[in-house]
UniProtKB/TrEMBL annotation:
Catalytic activity: FMN + ATP + H(+) = FAD + diphosphate; riboflavin + ATP = FMN + ADP + H(+)
Protein name (Swiss-Prot/TrEMBL): Riboflavin biosynthesis protein
Domain Riboflavin kinase: 182-307
Organism ancestry: Bacteria, Pseudomonadati, Pseudomonadota, Betaproteobacteria, Burkholderiales
Keywords: ATP-binding, FAD, Flavoprotein, FMN, Kinase, Multifunctional enzyme, Nucleotide-binding, Nucleotidyltransferase, Transferase
PANTHER family: RIBOFLAVIN KINASE, RIBOFLAVIN KINASE/FMN ADENYLYLTRANSFERASE
Entry annotated with the keyword Membrane: no
Record InterPro entries: FAD_synthase, Riboflavin_kinase, Riboflavin_kinase_bac, Riboflavin_kinase_bac/euk, Riboflavin_kinase_dom_sf, Rossmann-like_a/b/a_fold
Any GO MF annotation of the entry: FMN adenylyltransferase activity
Family classification: Belongs to the ribF family.
Pathway: Cofactor biosynthesis; FAD biosynthesis; FAD from FMN: step 1/1; Cofactor biosynthesis; FMN biosynthesis; FMN from riboflavin (ATP route): step 1/1
Enzyme type, top EC level: transferase
UniProt-listed Pfam families: FAD_syn, Flavokinase
């Protein structure tokens, strides 16, 4: 998959089939849309192109009421790549872009910018200044500029429309089973391990630290997780995602992960943290002693979670865990 920050340059311009949207989470509704785009691309012998936006348009217009982010950019890009996208255009959403009339959007982006031959949009797609453009405008433009326009119907799960909003609600509630059903995969966050304050190590609970670039993740609190990318099997762990109010007033969001029974140099490694169960909300404590006691309790609860899961899955799972828990990476 080729990624373009803004419209492709002249050498990269070639006809394509296109879909446009934010694709936060790349949930089952997005996946159905991408499958339709892939089929249209295959029938025409053209590449699949997705245009998305950074920041989210609602972050630009109403930053205080912007939706929480389900995916970081790395995870969104990887999900789009895995669903057959050949070209990803990440358009910077700013005053100039937002101020384009529907006609300018069609000419500058769809026709001259991406040379679109076939376009698929969702059932709620609007575009141009003040969201003045709609599906009928697009269909008329397609007739004038010779590109086909299709609209994707609503995709539902258990009678409820699959949407990024539904995924955010599930994650905010700590309902990872529901999030899995909507996403078609377990919810996880991927990132490189970075150096932190080393406070966890001083308290006896060393952590892997992953930066969260956006300020409003779709979930926060203390969680049972498992970590992929450090061993042959996922490693059991407990994690904190949030602002760390007891020790940090910077407003920076951080994902901190304490691996159970694992020692190793993980700095710089790319890991995927899969969320399994929420233990509690984030709390501001009066001092480090209270914080240390809370972390100890969280760790005990995480161990109990994995012990219960192992008992439920039988002796073979317990043997696998015993091997994983004693692995070491130098």
């Amino acid at each position: 998959m080729r990624v373009f920050r803004g419209l492709p340059n002249a050498q990269s311009k070639a006809p394509c089939v296109l879909t446009i949207g934010n694709f936060d989470g790349v949930h089952l509704g997005h996946q159905a849309l991408l499958a339709r785009v892939r089929a249209a691309a295959a029938a025409r012998g053209l590449p699949v192109c997705v245009m998305t936006f950074e920041p989210h348009p609602r972050e630009y217009f109403t930053p205080d009421r912007a939706p929480a982010r389900i995916s970081n950019l790395r995870d969104k890009f990887e999900a789009l790549r895995s669903h057959g996208v050949d070209r990803l255009v990440v358009e910077h959403f700013n005053a100039h872009f937002a101020g384009q009339s529907p006609e300018d959007f069609v000419r500058n982006i769809i026709v001259d910018g991406l040379h679109t031959r076939w376009l698929l949009v969702g059932d709620d797609f609007r575009f141009g200044a003040k969201r003045a453009g709609d599906i009928e405008y697009l269909r008329d433009a397609g007739r004038r500029f010779d590109f086909v326009v299709e609209q994707m119907p609503t995709i539902a799960h258990d009678g409820v429309r699959i949407s990024s909003s539904e995924v955010r609600t599930a994650l905010a509630d700590g309902n990872f089973e529901r999030a899995h059903a909507l996403l078609g995969r377990p919810y996880a966050i991927t990132g490189h391990v970075v150096h932190g304050m080393k406070l966890g190590r001083k308290l006896g609970f060393p952590t892997l630290n992953l930066r969260i670039a956006h300020k409003h993740p779709a979930l926060s609190g203390i969680f049972v997780v498992q970590v992929h990318g450090l061993a042959d099997k996922p490693l059991p762990a407990v994690a904190s995602l949030g602002l760390r109010p007891t020790v940090d007033d910077s407003g920076r969001v951080l994902l901190e992960v304490h691996l159970l029974d694992f020692v190793g140099d993980c700095y710089g490694k790319l890991v995927r943290v899969e969320f399994l169960q929420k233990l509690r909300d984030e709390v501001k404590y009066d001092g480090l002693a209270e914080l240390e006691a809370a972390i100890a309790q969280d760790t005990r609860e995480a161990r109990a979670y994995f012990a219960h899961a192992l008992d439920a899955n039988g002796p073979s799972a317990r043997r696998d865990f015993a091997t994983t828990a004693t692995d070491r990476i130098s």
